[in-house]
């Protein structure tokens, strides 16, 4: 059995990012571009792993754009198999959401596994409802909508049900789910672990994910294409992304080649679709001792970055640009005129939007603290560092640091004001100063 399909997710149609109509249209253009690829590559079907829409309550124009893209597939005879993502789940008081509406118009095959007393009902897709569809002879596709924190238990139950399911004649299985994988995004909790996905592994050849906008794949069976458009500035640092083109051939397992994996029955290739450039610049201010020195150095940096982009990018659309200033500012913040830096971005990039983020610290509050210290040691280091910057205390900063911590502790434990004053008056540094006077 041979088949070809396209896997995408997180189109977020209707997102008027930064309140700009241009960005609203960009998300639709990216969606149309991927639909055009599906037709040009003559795929057998398209897998849409959730979040077609930015929000569950959409306007008429957003719906029109979604229908226009899906109608291209419909006219070409290419079914689109989808699940609902978290952004587009119907409200509880609504009979159907907009994804169900598209399914009623036969523009989508909206798959979802329902449960009765915790047991999955793995029923075939009929009358626009069901958990799976045999879209190509020998190829079965299951779907599970976004379940949030209940996804792990839902997957475990489905894995058990698949052990008993009749798979006669099925040579290849796809499972669509809108969920993340733990550890893909540093510092962000949530997502399933590989252990929690293990119940699906014996039954699923290709796990088609959406939800996380960063592309990734694991073990030759878990795939996430990332978002076709850039939904936040942080995504500018991620690899190119957009959609997977997947060729299935069950006649002979593929060798270890590319990202297919040992013994895999498919070859999945990640492709990037056209999108507006997002340029994120970062400039450290520490070495600049005056406002003019900082501006001149930053001007050279921005000009060089603009030249580098012109040499590498063929995207004619005006980019979205952000300049982040960080580090320790050697002069008063009043001298940091952010409008001048925004004008630099406009001059060199001619952007759709330009942002300047001030993440600098004034010298008097910037402390290089050791993250390995405990709370008391960290507090002691910070106080000593601050006292060392004042000529009146620098010579005996260790003594002043001990005194400051001692007075703080006395206040916290409810010591009488007279006792605190007595401690202060008898401090060696102050006694010495009195004797000198």
Question: What does this protein look like?
Answer:
There is one protein chain. This protein has helices spanning 21-40, 60-75, 98-104, 151-164, 194-197, 291-312, 338-349, 375-387, 397-412, 417-425, 428-436; strands at residues 2-8, 45-48, 80-82, 109-110, 114-116, 119-121, 132-136, 139-144, 172-178, 206-210, 216-218, 222-224, 242-249, 266-272, 278-284, 320-329, 353-362. The termini are far apart. With 437 residues, it is an alpha/beta fold. Helix 1 (21-40) runs parallel beside helix 2 (60-75), helix 6 (291-312) packs parallel to helix 7 (338-349) and helix 9 runs antiparallel to helix 10 (417-425). The chain has a six-stranded mixed sheet with strand order 4-3-2-1-13-14. A six-stranded mixed sheet has the order 7-8-9-10-12-11, with no helix packed on it. Strands 15-16-17 form a three-stranded parallel sheet, with helices on one face. The protein has three domains: 2-272, Metallo-dependent phosphatases (Purple Acid Phosphatase, chain A, domain 2), CATH 3.60.21; 278-365, Translation Initiation Factor IF3, CATH 3.30.110; 375-436. The longest helix has 22 residues, at 291-312. The chain contains eleven helices and 17 strands.
């Amino acid at each position: 059995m041979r088949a070809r399909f396209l896997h995408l997710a997180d189109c977020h149609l209707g997102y008027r990012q930064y309140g700009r109509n241009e960005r609203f249209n960009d998300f639709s253009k990216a969606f149309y571009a991927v639909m055009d690829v599906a037709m040009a590559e003559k795929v057998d079907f398209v897998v849409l792993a959730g979040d077609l829409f930015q929000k569950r309550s959409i306007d008429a124009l957003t719906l029109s754009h979604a229908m226009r893209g899906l109608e291209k597939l419909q006219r070409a005879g290419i079914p689109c198999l989808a699940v609902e993502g978290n952004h587009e789940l119907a409200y509880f008081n609504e009979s159907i959401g907009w994804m169900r509406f598209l399914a009623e118009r036969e523009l989508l095959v909206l798959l979802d596994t329902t449960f009765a007393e915790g047991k999955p009902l793995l029923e075939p897709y009929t009358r626009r409802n069901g958990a799976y569809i045999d879209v190509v002879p020998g190829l079965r596709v299951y779907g599970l909508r976004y379940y949030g924190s209940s996804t792990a238990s839902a997957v475990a139950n489905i894995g058990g049900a698949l052990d008993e399911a009749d798979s006669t004649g099925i040579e290849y299985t796809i499972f669509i789910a809108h969920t993340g994988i733990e550890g893909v995004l540093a510092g962000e909790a949530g997502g399933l672990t590989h252990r929690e996905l293990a119940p699906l592994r014996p039954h699923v050849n290709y796990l088609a994910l959406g939800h996380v906008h960063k592309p990734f794949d694991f073990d030759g069976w878990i795939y996430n294409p990332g978002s076709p458009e850039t939904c936040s500035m942080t995504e500018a640092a991620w690899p190119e992304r957009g959609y997977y083109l997947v060729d299935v051939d069950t006649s002979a397992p593929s060798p270890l080649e590319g990202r297919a994996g040992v013994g895999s029955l498919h070859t999945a290739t990640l492709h990037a679709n056209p999108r507006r450039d997002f340029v994120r610049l970062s400039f450290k201010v520490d070495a600049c001792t005056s406002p003019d020195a900082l501006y001149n150095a930053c001007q050279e940096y921005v000009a060089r970055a603009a030249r580098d982009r012109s040499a590498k990018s063929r995207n004619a659309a005006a980019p979205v640009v952000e300049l982040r200033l960080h580090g320790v500012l050697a002069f008063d913040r009043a001298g940091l005129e952010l409008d001048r830096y925004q004008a630099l971005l406009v001059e060199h990039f001619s952007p759709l939007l330009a942002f300047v983020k001030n993440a600098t610290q004034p010298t008097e509050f910037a402390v290089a603290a050791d993250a390995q210290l405990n709370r008391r040691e960290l507090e002691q280091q910070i106080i000593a560092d601050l006292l060392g910057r004042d000529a009146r205390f620098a010579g005996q900063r260790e003594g002043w640091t001990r005194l400051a911590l001692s007075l703080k502790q006395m206040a916290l434990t409810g010591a009488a004001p007279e006792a605190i004053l007595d401690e202060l008056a008898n401090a060696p540094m102050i006694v010495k100063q009195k004797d000198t006077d």
